C-alpha cells in the first residue's frame, strides 16, 4: 500500500505523545504480538511518527533483551521522539492502566472470590489459559525451532523443569552456554530466525523519523552516557530496595519481593510465559506468597487486562502483601497495594535501564552471531519451559492428579474449544476470554 504525495508529519509535542501512550495503555490487549500490531498500525501507518524500517529495527533490538518487548518498544520510540523523559513517560503510561485494573481485580478476587458468579467466571477462564499458553509455545516454537539441535534443546529444557525440577535460571544458563559454544563452532545452526517477521517493506508515506533521518544526538552511543544512565538506574533500584530493607528488614516480604522480581526481570527471554515457571517456583514454593490455585487464577486475571502479561507480578505482589499482612492486620489493603507497586517497580526497572542506557550499543552489535547465538539457544529452551507450564496448569485445572472419576471433563471441553478457536480460527484473546467466562458461568449454573 503506497501513499505517495503525502506531507511529512509535523513534530510531535510531548502533550500529544502523552495522550497517545495513555490511550495505548488502556487498549493494549492481545499479548505482545497484539500490542506490537497496534503500535505498528498507529505509529507507522496512521500517524507516521516512525517509518516501518526504523520501527522494525527498534523491535529487533528489543527482542534481543530480557523483558517484555512490547513495553520496551514503547519506551524506545518514546525515547527516540522525546529523549529520556519521553521514554519514561511512554513506558509508565503503557504499564499504569494495567497495574490499576489488575489491582482492582485482585482486590475483588480476594474479597469476593467465593461468590458463585466470580467463581464461575474464573472456572471458564482457567481452561482458556491452558490453551493460550499452548498457543504461545506453538507461536514461539514455530519461529525459533529451526533445526533439530534447537528442537533437542527445547525437549531437554522441558524434561529438566517438568521431570527433574531444575530451577529455571539453571536452564537458561545451560542454554546460553550451549548457544555460546554453538555460535563459535556451528554458527549456521544458531542464526536467529523468525521473530516478528515482516512482509516486503511498505511505504505509508514519509514519516517524522524516516529511514534516512539521522540518529538524534541523544540516541548516539557514548561510553559516558552508557555509564551515567546505567549508574543512575542501578542507584535508583538500590535506593528503593534500601528503603524497604530499612523499614522491614532485609528478610521482610517487600525487600524479598524487590530482589526476587529484579531477578525475574533479567530472565524474561522469550516473553512473560517463559519466566512464569520461575515466578511460580519463587512465589509459591519458596516464599509462599500465593498458593498454586491463586497463581493460576492470577494468570487468568492477567489475560483479561491490557498491558504486558508479566504484570502477573503485580497480582503476586498484591496477594503476597495481603496474605502476609506486611503493614499489620489493620493495613491489609495498604500492604497489598504496596506489594503490587514493589513487584511492578522492580520488574520493569531493568527494561527502562536496558533501553535508555544500552540502546545504541546493542543496536550496533545486534548482528554479531557470537552475541545472538546464546539468545537463540535460550529461545529454544523457552519453548520447552512454556510447554511444561501448560502441562502444570492443565494438571491442576483438569484435576489430573486425582482419580479418573474426579477429572474435570467440562474444563477439558472448554480448553479444547478454546484451542480450536485459537489455532483454527485465530480468535482474539479478549473474545476468547469472554466466551470462556460465559461458558464457565453456564457450566457452574448447571452443576
Automatic annotation (TrEMBL):
UniProt-listed Pfam families: Chromate_transp
Keyword set, alphabetical order: Cell membrane, Membrane, Transmembrane, Transmembrane helix
Chief subcellular location: membrane
Protein name (database record): Chromate efflux transporter
Keyword Zinc: no
InterPro entries, per database record: Chr_Tranpt_l_chain, Chromate_transpt
Transmembrane segments: 18-38, 85-110, 117-138, 150-181, 226-246, 258-280, 300-320, 332-359, 371-394, 406-423
Superkingdom of source: Bacteria
The keyword Transmembrane is annotated on this UniProt entry: yes
GO MF term list: chromate transmembrane transporter activity
A single cellular component GO annotation: plasma membrane
Source organism of the structure: Noviherbaspirillum saxi
Subcellular location(s) of the protein: Cell membrane
Homology family: Belongs to the chromate ion transporter (CHR) (TC 2.A.51) family.
Protein's membrane topology: Multi-pass membrane protein
NCBIfam families: 2A51
Amino acid at each position: 500500500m503506497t501513499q505517495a504525495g503525502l506531507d511529512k508529519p509535523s513534530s510531535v509535542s510531548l502533550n500529544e505523545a502523552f495522550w497517545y501512550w495513555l490511550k495505548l495503555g488502556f487498549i493494549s490487549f492481545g499479548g505482545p504480538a497484539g500490542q506490537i500490531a497496534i503500535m505498528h498500525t498507529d505509529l507507522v501507518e496512521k500517524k507516521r511518527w516512525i517509518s516501518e524500517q526504523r520501527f522494525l529495527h527498534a523491535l529487533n533490538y528489543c527482542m534481543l533483551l530480557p523483558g517484555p518487548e512490547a513495553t520496551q518498544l514503547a519506551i524506545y520510540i518514546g525515547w527516540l521522539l522525546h529523549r529520556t523523559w519521553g521514554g519514561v513517560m511512554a513506558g509508565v503510561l503503557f504499564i499504569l492502566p494495567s497495574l490499576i485494573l489488575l489491582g482492582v481485580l485482585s482486590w475483588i478476587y480476594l474479597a469476593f472470590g467465593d461468590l458463585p458468579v466470580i467463581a464461575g467466571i474464573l472456572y471458564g477462564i482457567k481452561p482458556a489459559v491452558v490453551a493460550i499458553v499452548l498457543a504461545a509455545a506453538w507461536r514461539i516454537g514455530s519461529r525459533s525451532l529451526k533445526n533439530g539441535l534447537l528442537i533437542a534443546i527445547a525437549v531437554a529444557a522441558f524434561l529438566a523443569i517438568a521431570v527433574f525440577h531444575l530451577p529455571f535460571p539453571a536452564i537458561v544458563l545451560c542454554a546460553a552456554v550451549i548457544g555460546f559454544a554453538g555460535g563459535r563452532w556451528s554458527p549456521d545452526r544458531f542464526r536467529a530466525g523468525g521473530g516478528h517477521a515482516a512482509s516486503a517493506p511498505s511505504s505509508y508515506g514519509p514519516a517524522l523519523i524516516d529511514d534516512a533521518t539521522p540518529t538524534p544526538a541523544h540516541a548516539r552511543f557514548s561510553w559516558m552516557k552508557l555509564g551515567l544512565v546505567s549508574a543512575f538506574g542501578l542507584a535508583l533500584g538500590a535506593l528503593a530496595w534500601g528503603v524497604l530493607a530499612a523499614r522491614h528488614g532485609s528478610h521482610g516480604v517487600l525487600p524479598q519481593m524487590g530482589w526476587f522480581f529484579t531477578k525475574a526481570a533479567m530472565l524474561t527471554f522469550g516473553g512473560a510465559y517463559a519466566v512464569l515457571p520461575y515466578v511460580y517456583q519463587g512465589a509459591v514454593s519458596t516464599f509462599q506468597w500465593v498458593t498454586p490455585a491463586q497463581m493460576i487464577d492470577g494468570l487468568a486475571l492477567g489475560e483479561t487486562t491490557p498491558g504486558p502479561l508479566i504484570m502477573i507480578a503485580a497480582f503476586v505482589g498484591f496477594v503476597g502483601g495481603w496474605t502476609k499482612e506486611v503493614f499489620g492486620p489493620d493495613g491489609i489493603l495498604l500492604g497489598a497495594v504496596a506489594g503490587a507497586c514493589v513487584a511492578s517497580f522492580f520488574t520493569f526497572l531493568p527494561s527502562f535501564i536496558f533501553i535508555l542506557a544500552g540502546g545504541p550499543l546493542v543496536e550496533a552489535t545486534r548482528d554479531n552471531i557470537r552475541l545472538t547465538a546464546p539468545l537463540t539457544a535460550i529461545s529454544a529452551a523457552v519453548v520447552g519451559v512454556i510447554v511444561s507450564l501448560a502441562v502444570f496448569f492443565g494438571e491442576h485445572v483438569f484435576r489430573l492428579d486425582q482419580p479418573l472419576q474426579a477429572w474435570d471433563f467440562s474444563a477439558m471441553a472448554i480448553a479444547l474449544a478454546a484451542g480450536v478457536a485459537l489455532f483454527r480460527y485465530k480468535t482474539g484473546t479478549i473474545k476468547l476470554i469472554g466466551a470462556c467466562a460465559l461458558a464457565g458461568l453456564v457450566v457452574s449454573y448447571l452443576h
